[in-house]
Amino acid sequence: MYVRSFLDSTGDGIGDLAGVRAGLPYLKKLGVDGIWLSPFYPSPQHDHGYDVADYCDVDPVFGDLAEFDRLVDAARRLGVKVLLDIVPNHCSSEHPWFRAALAAAPGSPERARFHFADGRGPDGTEPPNNWHAMFGGPAWTRVTEPDGRPGQWYLHMFTPEQPDWNWREPEVAAEFDRILRFWLDRGVDGFRIDVAAGLFKHPELPDSPDPEADARTRDSVNPLAWNQPEVHDVWRHWRAVCEEYTARDGRERLLVGEVSVPTAREHARYVRPDELHQAFFFDLLGAPWDADAFRKVISEAIDDIAGTGSTVTWVLNNHDQVRTVTRYGEPTPEGSGLGPARARAAALLMLALPGAAYIYQGEELGLPEVVDLPDDVLTDPIFRRTGSRARIRDGCRVPLPWSGQASPFGFTSGAEGAKPWLPQPEWFAEHATDRALADTRSFWHLYRDGLQLRAALPQLGDGSLRWLDTQPGVLAFARGDLVCAVNFGTAPVPAPFPGTPLLASGPCEAGVLPGSTAAWWIDGS
């Protein structure tokens, strides 16, 4: 859940914790087991909360700790788990510890909590190494020392307002231990860990052979800045903390990591039995719309990740990526795009796979990406730092439409004319929640039915997958006697297996139709 964009209870145009609490019955009706909340901590909002100034409080724009406690209590009564988004790789430049570091001298304990280093070249005018930040520009910023002279540089792999912690300093690890326990004591069910392959940098901070790799791919691919072996010791410790709380009351606490690493085999190291319970597997999200590509990433995930005893954690959308309806879109001669049909098919495919599945708010409404936001409303720091609209994230973060025919579509409770923090297009009316609930053919009902069947059918959930031979362009596998088939092609194909009763599908009565439908059915043989 991207809290800013879910539901606004105060009329200021920004979603908040009370809005999340008000939406819990809707989420329970959809069939979710738990919610992951984007950061709501005090923050100057240079990266919408991922620049944390205080890890143990609530930013007033989202509510307060008392409202958070009410949200947790309400969720527990409904049987919905609550996960918090924790950001251990970096903090805000307004965090008290970073302000203290700026005020302290080079070599001080305050600066040791971060990556401060002397510059290169005459008078230290060049950055300590050639790394580039993921959001564009150099990964280093020079500070002005307390005496007014140009001084050292500090590392920030995202924006200058997000200095990276130095996890080689024991005091940092101890502080995050305190933070975890603060929220676990308030009843949270676990954490989604931002940049979970980060934290540690190469101890010598050497030059990279491909310094612009992170900025070019907007992914954590610099092997000197990410995926260092020491990070696994952190997750083993965090796992032990969670199990300590589970031992007290029998309620499992979950750790799920945002893990971006080059291969499924490296990904699997993060979900070994004593580390994270889950780690988002992004390869399916990044796969092109192609049967062979989907089969390859699914097979690699199951072979390498499930082999650890963990489950693969599938995701097709999130708050950082173009929504599937747009990402899979391809215009047809008739003018209607294939994106919605492909997104529906991918949803059923994901829900039929063994492992965990995460849904991003609005995915269940079939929301496309908003691609034509004016430059003057864009808030993504990628746009501010690069001047480019490529890969900016505002388009998937536009506040949700709940009801009505015009903005704010029930998102805000403010007076008439209240404006959401990002403008909603007129066509959001076609995807409003009230319309989706009333239309049994909508995305919402597809997701609700799929989630209900996923919970009810013993063939799904944990377990094995068996690939089936099919016509070219069709992907099919069996989970016990349940078959899932997806047509990636452009022509109809007959259902390639015996059996009739379709449990959940697009218009598949004549087989698996073009337009990329998917079907589940029981194998009658």
How would you sum up this structure in a few lines?
The protein is α/β, with parallel strands linked by helices.
Helical content (DSSP H or I, runs of 4+): 25-40%
Tell the overall outline. globular
Continuous helix count: 15
Please state the average pLDDT score. Answer: 90
Family: Belongs to the glycosyl hydrolase 13 family.
Keywords: Hydrolase
Protein name: Glycoside hydrolase family 13 protein
GO molecular function: hydrolase activity
Description:
Helix 2 (65-78) links the parallel strand 1 (34-37) and strand 2. Strands 1-2-6-7-8-9-10 form a 7-stranded parallel β-sheet. Strands 11-12-13-15-14 form a 5-stranded antiparallel β-sheet, covered by helices on one side. It has a 3-stranded antiparallel β-sheet with strand order 3-5-4, with no helix packed on it. It is globular, with a radius of gyration of 24 Å. The longest helix has 19 residues, at 231-249. It has helices at residues 17-30, 65-78, 96-103, 109-112, 170-185, 213-217, 231-249, 264-268, 283-286, 291-304, 324-327, 339-352, 381-386, 433-438, 443-456; strands at 34-37, 81-86, 116-117, 140-144, 150-155, 190-193, 254-257, 278-281, 313-315, 356-358, 466-467, 474-479, 482-487, 502-505, 518-522. 28% of the residues lie in helices and 12% in strands. Helix 1 (17-30) packs parallel to helix 2, helix 5 (170-185) packs parallel to helix 7 and helix 12 runs parallel beside helix 15 (443-456). With 525 residues, it is of the alpha/beta class. Mean pLDDT is 90; it is low at 496-511. Pfam families: Alpha-amylase, DUF3459. Keywords: Hydrolase. GO terms for molecular function: hydrolase activity. Belongs to the glycosyl hydrolase 13 family. This is Glycoside hydrolase family 13 protein.
